Structures are given as structure tokens and as C-alpha cells.
Amino acid sequence: MNQLLAEEGASPQKGWVRDGILSFLSKRPGTATEIARALGVSKATVSYHTKALIRRGMIEIADIKTIRGGVYSKTYVLKQGALALARRKDDQEGSLTKLDEWFERLLMSMHLEPRRKPADEMEIFLYHLFRLLAESDSLYEGIFEDFGRRVGDGLVASSLRFATLRSGLKELAEYLGAEGFAQVTASLRKGEEPRLVCMECFENKDYGSLVCSFTKGIMTGAIKARDGGTLRLERVRQGIGTPGCFFVVKRRGFKS
To answer: What are the boundaries of each domain within the chain?
Structure first.
């Protein structure tokens, strides 16, 4: 499925198309056709994600050639200085420390004078996180979820009133959608435990991926920060063909 990520030791099921594109371009320039062939996805999928990467300043067009019938072929490259990669495993500890420091500065700057939309800033951070952890063979969902909790606690929670569980979960879902983080709905049926259903996060629909763990952490951190009690989100399985990530809200001390 994802030949490039598989060769690098990453699980295709845990992959992310945009990270695959960056992995490809970290080795050599490439066209959408070449990248699509390496990743095992359609050219249209690659074209969609390259537009987002250009918009976020991660890659750029190095060359445009006219081929048959007046069709243009674009060659993409990493933008200079866009990715700070750790090349040697001996550098990993220091690199992760720098990443942690950068993350804290990022949250602070977003409170003061954000340069981009919060979702774009978080997606760029995810690129760095993917690359650094892949270099050290440490693509663990717990690390992604932990950083997500810090986003929820340090950025999202301050935008929520969370007077009750019902209103709080709706506020959270609306905030995540309005800011471009994720498309989430809150299911609050009488007699059932509350549920959060995430259909897409950071333009990613690879349900159950590491990006989903990051988003799960955001939701957990935001609710715990506003409630002050004990909370965990438990992922539950849905029937085959049912899209989205489903989480049951396990809580104590909430007002419903």
C-alpha cells in the first residue's frame, strides 16, 4: 500500500499521505505521478495534499514542464529549512528536547500573536513530530496523544465554558470544526454514555492513525482542563463500513 513508508519501517496502516510525500521529497525531487507510484495512492490524492503542503510552506514547485496536449507536469521539492530532521540516532534525545521547547513556544505565540491558523500551526508541528520519531523508530501513539493533551489543555480549553457535560462537549465539537482541527459530533443520548465521533482530523481520514491519537489527546486535555475531574476517552469499535473514530466519554464528577 505505502511502499515508501514500509521501506522506512513505518506501518502503512499508521501512515499519513502528507508524511509520505515529505519522506519522498526528503530524498529527491518528484512529480505527482512519481510520488503517487511510490506511495501506492492516486495522483489526484497526491495533488490534493501537495497543494496543502505548499500553502503551509512545507514544499515548493521547483520546475514546470509542458507535456503532451498542453498538460503541465510539476516537480516538487522540500522548501529550504522547512523540516528539521535528525540524521543520527545519537541526536534524537537532543532533537526531541528541542521539539518540546519549540512546542511550548508555539503555544505561547499562538496566544499572543499567531502567524497562521491554529490548525495549520498544529499540522506543521505534526510533520516535525512524524519525522523526528520516524528517525528514531519511535512512532508510538502515546507520544502523539501526550502532545495532543497539551494542546487541549494549553490552547483549546480556554475557549470553552463547559458549564455542563452536554454543553461542554457541543462547545468542543464546534470549536474543533470552526478552527479546522477536526470534524467532530457529540452524541448525547439519554441513558447512554456520551460519545464523541471524529469523522476527519487535520484533513486526515485514516481512522485510527497516529494523527487520530493526537486529536484524541486534544479532546481529552480540553475536557479535563475545563472539568478538573477524572476523564478518559475510550475508543470503541464500530461495524464494518462505519466511518470515523468513536470514543465513549468515561467520566466522574461531571454535571450532565
So the answer is: 3-78, 89-252
d(CA 69, CA 58): 30
**CATH homologous superfamily, domain 89-252:** H-NOX domain (3.90.1520.10)
Mean pLDDT per 10-residue run, the chain (256 residues)?
37 58 83 91 89 84 75 80 47 64 79 77 82 69 88 90 88 94 89 89 81 92 80 76 84 50
Beta carbons within 8 Å of 58's beta carbon, 6+ residues apart: 22, 78, 79, 82, 83, 124, 127
Q: What is the pTM of this model?
A: 0.70
Return d(Cα 81, Cα 124) in angstroms, integer. 13
Q: Which three cell numbers stand for residue 24?
A: 519522498
Query: CB–CB of 187/236 below 8 Å?
Result: no
Structurally, at CATH architecture level, domain 3-78 sits in Orthogonal Bundle (1.10)
